[in-house]
Write a structure and sequence with these properties.
GO terms for molecular function: phosphatidylserine decarboxylase activity. By secondary structure, the chain is of the alpha+beta class. The model has no long low-confidence stretch (mean pLDDT 85).
């Protein structure tokens, strides 16, 4: 599958290369355009993913490598101590971001910023970002953040405020290499990954958080 957000990047070089190559009788232009279209089709690939069947597992929101794990005070949404897990996506990773839990999208908001290389620690604080405030079915709050990078200068949301989502369902897309940060409440959380681990969006468990019993 190819994500529809990538169609303009695929069609434009393909059509231009074909037309210009045909009229100029230059096969290099033709092959160059088709090659660029194929490269974009590969970049915007969007395979189906299947999460583990365990409601206590929080799965990775992105493909890539875990580059940071911190304990912080998250004040935008959770308003409590949280684990902040940073996942860096290079140009070769699938760039569709997925819901880490089954629940509801409580809010989505955007913060303008710079475009520093996304693998730097200061990228989260200074770069352009899009936030997804999620609530698991048992009420556990989870915050996912798309962070723009040096090449990735646009984040795309595929859901709206109020939507109900399943774990591994598509939430958004970052165009070209970038980073995703995930915040989960620190209390009772058990981390399942370390810095350097490779993870897959919608499939790799990264945190185990006990199911919270609701008051009846």
């Amino acid at each position: 599958m190819i994500n529809k957000a990538g169609l303009p990047y695929i069609l434009v070089p393909g059509i231009l290369g074909s037309v210009l190559g045909h009229f100029s009788q230059n096969k290099k232009i033709l092959y160059g355009g088709l090659g660029a279209a194929l490269a974009m089709a590969w970049f915007f690939r969007d395979p189906d993913r299947y999460p583990p069947f365990d409601r206590e597992l929080i799965v990775s929101p992105a493909d890539g490598r875990v580059v940071s794990i911190k304990r912080v005070k998250e004040e935008r949404f959770l308003e409590k101590d949280a684990y902040q897990i940073g996942i860096f996506m290079n140009l070769f990773d699938v760039h569709v971001n997925r819901a880490p839990v089954t629940g509801r999208v409580l809010d989505i908001w955007y913060e303008p910023g710079k475009f520093l290389p996304a693998d730097r620690d200061e990228a989260f604080a200074k770069n352009e970002k899009r936030f997804y405030a999620l609530e698991r079915l048992d009420g556990v709050p989870v915050l996912m953040v798309q962070v723009a990078g040096l090449l990735a200068r646009r984040t795309v949301s595929l859901v709206n405020k109020g939507d109900e989502v399943l774990a591994s369902e598509r939430l958004g897309l970052i165009k070209f290499g970038s980073r995703v940060e995930l915040f989960v409440p620190a209390e009772e959380a058990r981390l399942l990954v370390n810095i350097g681990h490779r993870v897959r969006a919608g499939e790799t468990p990264i945190v185990l958080y006990p199911w919270q019993k609701k008051d009846v």
